[in-house]
Amino acid sequence: MKFVTGTTETGRLELAELKSGTYFGKEVTVHGAVYANRPMGGGLTFLTLRKKDGTLQCVCDGSVDVSDIPEESAVIVTGLLQAEERAPGGIEIHVQSVQVLSRPAEPMPVPVNKWKLSLNLDTELSLRPVILRHLKKRSVFQIQAGLGRAFREYLSGQGFTEIHTPKIVHAGAEGGSNIFRLEYFTRKAFLGQSPQFYKQMMVGVYERVYEVAPVFRAEKHSTPRHLNEYTSMDFEMGYIQSFYDIIEMESGYLRYAMELLKKDYAADLQRLGITLPDVEHIPVVSFKEAKELAAERYHRPIRDPYDLEPEEEQNIGRYFKEVYGADFVFVTHYPVKKRPFYAMDDPENPKYTLSFDLLFRGMEVTTGGQRIHDYAQQVEKMLSKGMHPEEFESYLMIHKHGMPPHGGLGIGLERLTMKLCGLDNVRDACLFPRDLSRLEP
Amino acid sequence: MKFVTGTTETGRLELAELKSGTYFGKEVTVHGAVYANRPMGGGLTFLTLRKKDGTLQCVCDGSVDVSDIPEESAVIVTGLLQAEERAPGGIEIHVQSVQVLSRPAEPMPVPVNKWKLSLNLDTELSLRPVILRHLKKRSVFQIQAGLGRAFREYLSGQGFTEIHTPKIVHAGAEGGSNIFRLEYFTRKAFLGQSPQFYKQMMVGVYERVYEVAPVFRAEKHSTPRHLNEYTSMDFEMGYIQSFYDIIEMESGYLRYAMELLKKDYAADLQRLGITLPDVEHIPVVSFKEAKELAAERYHRPIRDPYDLEPEEEQNIGRYFKEVYGADFVFVTHYPVKKRPFYAMDDPENPKYTLSFDLLFRGMEVTTGGQRIHDYAQQVEKMLSKGMHPEEFESYLMIHKHGMPPHGGLGIGLERLTMKLCGLDNVRDACLFPRDLSRLEP
Question: Which residues in B lie closer than 8 A to residue A285 (C-beta atoms)?
Fold first, then answer.
């Protein structure tokens, strides 16, 4: 009988190993996709390989013919590794042999090996399965992976437990019409707008929980900041002293994330020309005060004291950038009418709630706050909003049988990525976006 | 202006800190839910707190009256910490004061503070929001969190990049009728049965990718091993030498996961009485041979050489347990008719594919294999299966423009948890299961 061993030997090296110096002057073997095949004259050809963490220059002299190896072929190259200052990453391989593993049937529809790609968004989105091979596009989603990894690592270190909650639900957490309907066998069901109910339930179990998962919003907006499906990084924590504990937890995450990006994603940051934002000095301001400050500075009268227009949101971001040099600002105490039924009212001013948004360069990237934990209070608030508590029996079970003071938040991963990478459209920060007109690829 | 600090001081200690010895004989403050409130006579009361990582015994003498604090209240307790061999975790607090943060409106519907809960499954599932507070129930999902964490940690270390792919799709990856239909604005859409197409696309970008996310199967089975929504741990890797590279990667994950559980989840393993399976010696056997071995040993003639009945699967598991002491077995070379259109045929015997399942104690917990990377070959196979390649334009784009040899797998997180924890029903390994009859909670 054959048994597994748990490891695989390929004898092929990755970029970090090649750059380590250990193999300089030695014969090495690597695999990769032919990113560029450029005859330089005099029988010399530069074969650039795209590897998972960068590119590698391979130099072929007249003794190795690579003229029939098209770009985007998958190859294994063997040759002598040399330090070479002028090459990307400071190394190159003098090729002795090339083995072709696979060949494309057709050339790429656009040259992804150019430094800059100028495509209109719709064309790009249709070509995403192959366009993402472009180094800068690829770096955006490496950074996104880093932001997700930082979220989990930081929260695990803070005693949070990861949970997986259902996306097919019998009722939405956010209410309203922005919900997708589903045929669930013989019944009607919906797609979850948020893991809100479930993460609250799990606070009663683990005190602190998080989930990174898709959420679905049937919003009929077609804007550069809306997606109909996005990745929500949610956490919920019990035994809070106030909703400021949630704010501090998020700012702890942001600090951890920026350090992780600096440490492990430096090449991607450099490729995208990203300067990381200051996360050490994030101002905290009330909704009311933020509106007033922006209105005064930019001479734009407040039309509705209990609402926030997108332009006001941008102006608040602008104000804190200009006055405090801040990229992030926590805006607290949102009005009751802007918050769902589970938000806890501010006992000092019941027109407002113990909640907050985090704005990043003028855009909301997080909504959070303290939730109602008392059963009678939650039922009363539902009734005051015209809701029917009997439809929420399984949710209210946790309030009925005891819940600690708690709260949490949801971070839109794509929006955070978008703003961090300085992108203009959230679709550029989502691998395969879903919007009003797009279901493919 | 107020600024965030990134930290919160509560002055409250967690179990690990309490057990460290640093605070023995000192006054400490802790929070928790009242798991049990048991008057012992003579004015003495044992107040057991449920904390996120275990329970804590608090002893109240006559000077502190806790008789009016019901179970499942959230409290803050201050008192003297003492080492006490007979108490859970070897420590107890001699209570000086108790502050009640919140009280339940009603007692629990069942006593979750009992060591064993005997409820029928349907009752339990309806009560899940509060039943999960039971220590043993909770441990199942701690272990599940550990399995997910191990998956990401191990694969990150192996150079994999995390991706987030859409769950609302225009076509299913697995085909067939087991797919949920959705109203997507004015169009028809579906819920993803697997991230298959997307993870393959991303192999062309990052070489190695993984995703932990929900998948949806509209299967009309009502069995102890089927869920209509489950968490799939998927990976896909390029430049493989054969599909055995995928098998080795999975066995590397299993080794890493068992070590992590031993190290960080020992209390949960002990609470559930789990003996970890041997992952160092996993046999690999072909589909054909596995069927023959089981048929011979258990005197059950093979009815269809190209199909595998659930009882045969169980017998294969039984065979390898009895003969090799193995809990896991990789069964390779599944018949073409049992595998989807993207599976690569075995060039040595085109009735079979370069694919595998992993059986764990007689149940399939993983399906994987090598995929077709050549465009012409993929189109031909689609046609041979009666499919229309023009309907898969965005998927075939990657084959057309070049893909390395690649393959991958999907692990059902709930099934892996179920078998590891020795549970009889996969619903016991899913927080809020979705099945034919259940959409709530």
Answer: 1-2
* Count of residues making up chain A: 441
Beta-bridge mates of residue B214: B231
CA proximity to B209, closest of A416, A74, A132: A132
Which of 390-419 (A) contact B at CB < 8 A?
Answer: 394-395, 397-405, 413
B405 upstream amide cis, omega within 30 of 0: no
Q: What is the residue type of B388?
A: H
Shortest CA distance to B169 belongs to which of B142, B188, B151? Answer: B188
Tokens of B363: 């149940």
Identify the CA nearest to A284 among candidates A359, A352, A364: A359
The three-class DSSP label of residue A51 is strand
**CB within 8 A of B335, min separation 6: which ones?**
B287, B305, B306, B307, B351, B352, B353
Residues of B in contact with A375 (CB under 8 A): 104-106
User: Is A346:A354 a contact under the CB 8 Å cutoff?
Assistant: yes
CA distance linking residue A393 with residue B441, whole number of Å: 9
**pTM score, whole prediction:** 0.97
The complex's ipTM?
0.97
Mean pLDDT of B246-270: 97
- Distance (Å, whole) CA B148 – CA B58: 34
pLDDT of A247 higher than 90: yes
Q: Which residue in B72, B119, B66 sits closest to B97, CA to CA?
A: B66
Among chain A residues, the shortest Cα distance to B402 is held by A104
Instruction: With a cut of 90, say whether residue B6 has pLDDT above it.
Output: no
Tokens 């993984």, residue? B210
Q: Which of A208, A280, A404 sits opposite B102 (nearest CB)?
A: A404
Which residues, numbered 333 to 372 in chain A, qualify as contacts with chain B under a Cβ-Cβ cut-off of 8 Å?
none
What is the nearest CA distance from B270 to chain A, expressed in angstroms? 18
| Listed ranges A88-92, A398-402, B187-191; the one with the highest mean pLDDT | A398-402
**How far off is chain B from A397, nearest CA to CA, in Å?**
7
pLDDT at A174: 66
B74 closest CB neighbour out of A129, A205, A239: A239
CB B227 within 8 A of CB B435: yes
CB-based contact B5 A251, cutoff 8 Å: yes
Domain range list for chain B = 15-102, 135-429
Q: Which residues of A touch B229 (CB under 8 A)?
A: 166-168
Q: Which residues contact B415 (CB under 8 A, 6 or more apart)?
A: B225, B230, B360, B363, B364, B365, B426, B429
Domain B135-429 in CATH 3.30.930.10? The answer is yes
Q: What is the tens place of the pLDDT at every residue in B32-69?
A: 999 999 999 988 999 999 999 999 999 999 899 999 99
Chain B residues near residue A441 by CB distance under 8 angstroms: 197, 201, 394-395, 397
The region that residue B68 occupies, defined by phi over 0 for left and psi between -120 and 50 for alpha, beta otherwise, is alpha
Q: Which of B165, B397, B402 lies closest to A103 in CB terms? A: B402
Domain A15-102 grouped into CATH 2.40.50.140: yes
Note which residues in 33-72 of chain B have CB less than 8 A from chain A.
33, 51-53, 70-72
* Mean of per-residue pLDDT scores for chain A: 96
Half-sphere CA count of A308, side-chain side, radius 13 A: 29
Number of A/B CB contacts below 8 angstroms equals: 346
Q: Considering only CA atoms, which of B40, B42, B41, B43 is closest in space to residue B57?
A: B40
Tens digit of pLDDT for each residue in B167-210? 999 987 666 779 999 989 999 999 999 999 999 999 999 999 99
